[in-house]
């Protein structure tokens, strides 16, 4: 009896989450007029790819895509290296000073200088209007250091490292040849967390960048989805107003899909890893 | 002391590479987290960029007084607290309930499917999320208003009517985050000793009783830790989503401290005033965190530190 109620409740939750997702996909390949009249409820109706055509014809979308790709690749590489550099020493019991350094790092989770002092610092370092302002100030996350350190401590037997050391491996060799090859699941999780973070971030770009040709995708998305500056996208102005507005609507659905495409494509492959990663983090939570 | 020092020198010689590895990380946190803390002093100064942080003149608590006496103060505090508490009341228990429900599902395919679907919105960016909210709630084209009209109701301009702002913020957050937040509870549930359930079944406990008497107490420590962390965030209500959802018409219920700090400080270049507002915010947060942690320690014997 209880179980039936549980299945019904979960089915309702499932529908509530799933419906908007399906709707967006269907709307992106339906005729915009049909969609905005409310005649499309679930499956695509009056197939049309006008939204995608307009998105792909837009130069700034491509600029944003290329910039975001660059920021994500460089940013994630730096994140990963820094996280390993922090997590490995802190995972070693024979690393004198680990408690002090852990406290020094964790404290920053609870108190910070705030937006203005951070902004002034980045400005003084001369990083305003460069890609480094989007990458360096977030070079590593405390939370991810803790997750990775916990993985090193719990999933890699200490004995392996000790015997490697007895066999004459230096610390670096142990890390490179033994610890890292055994840590592929957590490395995959870190790549996922950090790269999704870079892909989706817009705040740093909003406050630190001035030139449009450096803008990441999210800033252009904001203009199209939220500030509705679709005028220059929808093409020539001699179109009738009605058609003009419909194209503006079509672009919105298509761009949501295009912007999330990399994550959508990777999602099924990475799902088992990120759940594992969250679990590892949760154990010591 | 010398003996200790010698011991440290010995481990340092053995593990010098580890110290080398962690040096950039220590430097990073020093520069990007501790140096801005030094910059907090501009909240008590009249910051002039040409003079720099150190040489600008002290003016004491003037910026704080100006903030406390400003027309916006009450509105900012009420909105910040209102949105946070609303979010805490709705957004905190739902992932917990979802995890408890999912934990009972025997069918692995169904369970996996629900999880896959509910985790997915977590990966949407804030910009896309707010874009979707605007699309779905649009008075002319949005599906929600089509539904309202279909059932004979009056179309609602959700985004420009202030009284809707907080609910939209909180419930869209639940939609996006409940699956992801439930993972941590599922992990905790997986750690509960199955023999407890066996014994309870033998004693004739119903499923609901077992959820209530075994599962819930079993994950209480996790719940309390997350609750502490959430309460510690009460004043830190996120900038990104609110700023994107804001417009001139809903501003009276959408302006919160973080958006105010941004518009005054970065856009308006009132660095000192804005830093003072930000500092007030961080301090209230820190006090709340310490307070809740202490209460949790007393009541539940669970705490962050």
Describe this structure in words.
The complex is a heterodimer of chains A (about 280) and B (about 300). With about 280 residues, chain A is an all-alpha fold. In chain A, about 75% of the residues lie in helices and about 0% in strands. The longest helix of chain A is centred in the last third of the chain and has 44 residues. Chain A is globular and about 75 Å long. Chain B is globular, with a radius of gyration of 25 Å. The mean pLDDT of chain B is about 90. Chain B has about 300 residues and is mostly helical. In chain B, helix 6 packs across helix 9. Chain B has a two-stranded antiparallel sheet with strand order 1-2. Chain B contains 15 helices and 2 strands. The relative contact order of chain B is 0.11. Chains A and B meet through helix 1, helix 4, helix 5, helix 6 and helix 10 of A and helix 1, helix 5, helix 6, helix 7 and helix 8 of B.
- Based on secondary structure, the structural category of chain A is mainly alpha
Helix vs. strand class of chain B: mainly alpha
List low-confidence stretches of chain B.
none
> Which band does the percent of strand residues of chain B land in?
under 5%
Give the SSE order of chain A as H and E letters. Answer: HHHHHHHHHHHHHH
Distance between the termini of chain B: 29 Å
**How many structurally independent domains of chain B?**
2
Tally of contiguous helical segments of chain B: 15
* Shape designation of chain B: globular
* Quaternary state of the chains: heterodimer
Q: What is the count of helical runs of chain A?
A: 14
Indicate the low-confidence ranges of chain A by residue numbers. Answer: 230-236
Outline of chain A? globular
Question: Helices, strands, pairings?
Answer:
The complex is a heterodimer of chains A (285) and B (305).
Chain A: H1 2-28, H2 32-36, H3 50-57, H4 59-91, H5 98-110, H6 115-124, H7 132-135, H8 142-155, H9 158-166, H10 171-182, H11 184-200, H12 203-208, H13 217-226, H14 241-284
Chain B: H1 2-39, E1 45-46, H2 52-55, E2 57-58, H3 62-69, H4 73-91, H5 93-104, H6 108-119, H7 126-137, H8 143-150, H9 162-190, H10 194-202, H11 207-231, H12 239-245, H13 251-254, H14 257-267, H15 271-300
Antiparallel strand pairs in B: 1-2
Helix pairs in contact in B: 3-15, 4-9, 5-9, 6-9, 7-12, 9-11, 11-15, 14-15
